[in-house]
Amino acid sequence: MAEESGITVAELARHLGGELRGDGARVVRTVATLEQAGPEAVSWVGDQRHLRQLEQTRAGAVLIGRDIEPPAGRTVIRVADPDLALCDVLRVIGPSPERVPPGVHPSAVIGAGAVVEGAAIGPHVTIGARARIGAGTQLHAGVYVGADTRIGRDCVLWPNVVVRERTAVGDRVMIHSNTTIGTDGFGYLQRGGRHHKIPQVGRVVIEDDVEIGANAAIDRARSGETRIRRGTKIDNLVQIAHNCDIGEDCIIVGQCGISGSVTLGHHVLLSGHVGVIDHVRIADGVTVAATSIVFGDLAGGRTYRGSPAVEKMVFGRQQVSLQRLPKALAELRALTKRVEQLESAANHPETG
Amino acid sequence: MAEESGITVAELARHLGGELRGDGARVVRTVATLEQAGPEAVSWVGDQRHLRQLEQTRAGAVLIGRDIEPPAGRTVIRVADPDLALCDVLRVIGPSPERVPPGVHPSAVIGAGAVVEGAAIGPHVTIGARARIGAGTQLHAGVYVGADTRIGRDCVLWPNVVVRERTAVGDRVMIHSNTTIGTDGFGYLQRGGRHHKIPQVGRVVIEDDVEIGANAAIDRARSGETRIRRGTKIDNLVQIAHNCDIGEDCIIVGQCGISGSVTLGHHVLLSGHVGVIDHVRIADGVTVAATSIVFGDLAGGRTYRGSPAVEKMVFGRQQVSLQRLPKALAELRALTKRVEQLESAANHPETG
Amino acid sequence: MAEESGITVAELARHLGGELRGDGARVVRTVATLEQAGPEAVSWVGDQRHLRQLEQTRAGAVLIGRDIEPPAGRTVIRVADPDLALCDVLRVIGPSPERVPPGVHPSAVIGAGAVVEGAAIGPHVTIGARARIGAGTQLHAGVYVGADTRIGRDCVLWPNVVVRERTAVGDRVMIHSNTTIGTDGFGYLQRGGRHHKIPQVGRVVIEDDVEIGANAAIDRARSGETRIRRGTKIDNLVQIAHNCDIGEDCIIVGQCGISGSVTLGHHVLLSGHVGVIDHVRIADGVTVAATSIVFGDLAGGRTYRGSPAVEKMVFGRQQVSLQRLPKALAELRALTKRVEQLESAANHPETG
């Protein structure tokens, strides 16, 4: 973290593996757009449209693509991907997310046989018996990790996250505050008008590089597993029910609700507030537009919208039809009158 | 918990009150389907369709109905209701949910005059003054119980549940992690463009055998009570607003939102993502399909769907009409032309 | 708090700045409607329609407007606004919300350089380095306040609220349990099919007199600010994404979802379950009906409904059209037959 002291442009170029042109001794402390940047700010050209602004910027240094020839007199760092390099710059010059200090806070309660070597355990954390927390992982204040749960390396669990017993979490997973992983699936037997709880003896598996937003809930499987596969990103207030299998590199936006035993392929994008009915299968590369409801299986690589969700073009035709409907109903009434007149004329030709 | 050591089929039969046929000395340790079961697994015939698989299974023991004559040489336990018995088996041979050890964890903070005899109080729990926690009840880590709240016997509150002051919770209630019970209802007086908070002086009453999922919110009443009646089951991320009265044995699936002063009868089923507008009354035995929105009172014993929710058959006709609409608009245009031709012919009979 | 001992009507009149008529020595202990009130209850005439009940009530004292001449023999307190005065009465005679005792609970963990003078800090609270908590503010059990966060005066954060680092919270703000403020915005760069996290270096600013319900999530800005302006009230389970700017005195009802970079003007009312697509601007004084989805900018001072949200009258016409649709389709079929007959007659005039 260089928030206070800043970093020289030369150091930054080295860190990014970029090619420095200009004054490497300058110190930068912040990130800003080309327009807003001052002499202590790093800026970037993410797009050819920004090139003109590059000439006028007051930025201390600018990230540009290797394919761009910088204007004379500018201090730039040439990189393969300026947008991606910008993310690295933000990590270096901050402000950084808060970190849990290394070691175990004295107020934390660690269960018998739990392993926390190399992890950073915050205040008021509770870790169950035989749980294993990987090196480099941070458990912020108030986190609960149940018995026999395994959390991999370099994870971050933000304050008050709950990960119930027997869950498996991979490496580099981030889970945001007040989210619940591994709670019971919602399942009952109906007998004589009463609901009898079906024990939920399965578990949740979260693979590497998954991120889960705040106040979300992912249920354990009735038996077997609920699985979130590598690289998938889940937003706030999302519900994923028991026995779902969410593919790799999916994006699930805020307030989506995924019912039990749903299967998502890889690279599925569910926009905000989408609902998926139980046992549905959504194939690789599907996009579902915001607030749609998926009632049946969806074939791969296409975009769907509506409730029930249909292919985007079909939805578009439906919407156009709906907008025409009030006018069409008036036309139908008028046409009916014209037909009546024709009929009347045909029946009484003498008066025609 | 017999997870490690297993249990003999004879012991299991006794526990279930079932009739043993075959080798009672066998030890079983797990539950699996007829297809997947090995010799240490219990399986079950929940359905006549499974009978053929019963002949081929490798399961150590099989739960079957009393009306089924077991094939020779099979070890079976005959019970009145194999599905229900299976739930009991899962409770016996686990894996069991994590339990809070008996007694009060030294890190818990217990308010003046609070009574916790016979309850199991986990780490970092806070219990307000004069609260009463029943015997056999488990409060997992990080739970908060407010002043003057009463929690009955044999309840389980999972980590980080919040139950605010003056709430009443019955016996055998389960509340999942990060759920909030008894937060203020959402009510303001508008005066001169500002919103003045109306004090929410009522409370929440949760009757026996209710289960509430994770990350849900149930508001206290403005005055009087918000009440969840006996045996009702509520899923994750559900919102129940102030002064609602939810009947007995209802099922409320994930992400439903129930506005203020709504009344539900008994055995109402709200599927996922359903919304109910304030002051609506839903009668006994109503089912509302997923993602429907209820804008008015619903008569009992029927199924409703759509937004606004209408009877299922009406909804079905609407959907069929909608699908026909684009074609109908084209037909209307074509018909208009044909009428024009007829009119033209009628006006100019000589050219007909 | 006078819950136990009650308060004389004279004292109450003084507290309200009202004009006493009748017996000021009476003691009142509770609030009830005119019909239900007994001699120890305060009641109120919020509306001319209640005047008749005023004559028959058994209430110990009644709040009435200054424009109303009280019936002889009644004990009343005349005030400018009986509804508003009733809120004050409820605050005086309770039951009051639970309060955190002054000072810092010994189990709380206070970071280096944090300032908590005059605040009430409950059990198991964690406060980050350099955070500042204003005088009169209550942090209930299990609250987390991140490093460098500032919380103003006379705020209440209910149990298990999380306010992440570098957040700014004004005065008299109330945040309900299990809500998360300042969690990372949901933003990734897609490269080669993988999602690379964009550091979320912005923050959240919550201005004075805001109230936020339970289990809600408000994301920090990617850079810059997510801002909730003065006097806005937000209900349970609401999601507000990164870089939103929510105007003054708005009302956002339960389970609304507001996507990134949305701007709301002042006095906007979003009813329950409303969704707003990213980058939309909603002007001052707009009302959006429950469960609508806003896909585009909305002009000020009007009411919108539907998905996509349209002006209420347009929505009404659409709904009427939809209800007529099944009948219209039948009429279209019948009309087509009549046209066929006319055509047939025109083509075969001899058989007409």
Task: List the main descriptive attributes of the protein structure presented here.
homotrimer, 352 residues, alpha/beta, Udp-n-acetylmuramoylalanyl-d-glutamate--2,6- Diaminopimelate Ligase, Chain: A, domain 1, UDP N-Acetylglucosamine Acyltransferase, domain 1, ten-stranded parallel beta sheet, 4 helices, flat
Outline the structure in words:
- The structure is a homotrimer of 352-residue chains.
- By secondary structure, chain A is of the alpha/beta class.
- Among the domains of chain A are: 7-93, Udp-n-acetylmuramoylalanyl-d-glutamate--2,6- Diaminopimelate Ligase, Chain: A, domain 1; 103-254, UDP N-Acetylglucosamine Acyltransferase, domain 1 (3 Solenoid).
- In chain A, 18% of the residues lie in helices and 28% in strands.
- Chain A is built from 4 helices and 39 strands.
- In chain A, the strands form 6 sheets. The first copy, chain A, has a 12-stranded mixed beta sheet with strand order 8-10-13-16-19-24-27-30-33-36-38-39.
- The radius of gyration of chain A is 29 Å and the shape is flat.
- Chain A starts with 6 loop residues before the first strand and ends in a 5-residue tail after the last helix.
- The model of chain A has no long low-confidence stretch (mean pLDDT 94).
- The interface between A and C is large, with 57 and 63 residues.
